[in-house]
Each structure stands twice: as structure tokens, then as C-alpha cells.
Amino acid sequence: MKIQTRAEKHYIMIKLIKSGRSLNEANAMMKAASAGLFPINAQSGDLQDLQSLEGGLHRIRQTRNDAKKLMKIKFAPRKLNAPREEVLAKWATGYKGKVPLNWKRDGNLIRRGRPNKPKPGSSRKVIRQTRVIGAKKVLKDFRALVNTLQALQRKHGKGNTRGLQKAYRSIRSQVSAK
Questions:
Q1: What is the pTM (predicted TM-score) of this model?
Q2: Rounded Cα–Cα distance for residues 22 and 29 (Å)
């Protein structure tokens, strides 16, 4: 599979949003969200917060066998099998497919005839800075919840997996193009 450039991904995002498909189809939404989470479009602190939140929620959902494997490697950072933007976009949009994405253009985005020359920076007028709302507060509350549950486990000796699962289900993620 050919690795696509950031400019090509921005072009696909713009065309998907303007064609009205980005918020109706999960694959198109995933592509648009992934392009919006590039470091040039989003603040690095927001990306770090989202990645920490996604990683913590991933660890809550894992099975006992997965947790044992993680303990064996001494809590090394989570290895991502795709670019960070695509992993975060998958988590934020609820996309059920595999990552990395296939960035081959959809049928209605394929140009007929000779290709135009790329214009560097032309997407800057259309794709604004990505806003991440509420990630810091959720991450702070989430860390406080985990610390409280760990303190309770140390004091009483019982794990509260049900409480963690309930907290995981209460966190919502949403992507929209405004």
C-alpha cells in the first residue's frame, strides 16, 4: 500500500466534507478525523491528552490474558500499529474497521483527466485548527477515579472491575465538522 502524504489526506478530508459524506459514513468520518488530528492541525498537548485517555481506556477494556501480557513487559508504552492520528480518530469516531486506513481515493474523488499540480499550503484556508474540548478535564477525573479505586483496592483487597467498566461506558467521544 502506498503511503499517502499529508497534503493528499487534507485533500481527501476537504472533498469528503464538501461532498456531504463525512458525517454519514464511518470510513469517511475516520479519514476526516484522522486528517484533522495531524500535529499541524491540533495542539500537541491535546493530542497527548487524547492519547493518554485512549490508552487508559484501552487498558480497562482488555481481558485478563491481555493484562498478564502487559505486566510481563513492565508497562511499556502502548505500541501503535498505525499512525497516532488514525488510532485517535478510530477511538474518537467509534470506527470498527482496521487501521492503518487505506487512503486510496473513493470513487467520487477520483479525477478524470490529467492530475493538477499540488499547491502547498492550499488546505490551510479550509482546514482550521482542530479543537479538542473537555479532554483535560476528563483525563484529570479519570486519573482521580483510577487512583481512588487503587487506594480502595489496597485498603480492602478487592478489585472493582465493574466500577471501571461503568466509568468507561460513561465517557463519550464525538467528532463533528463545523
A1: 0.52
A2: 5
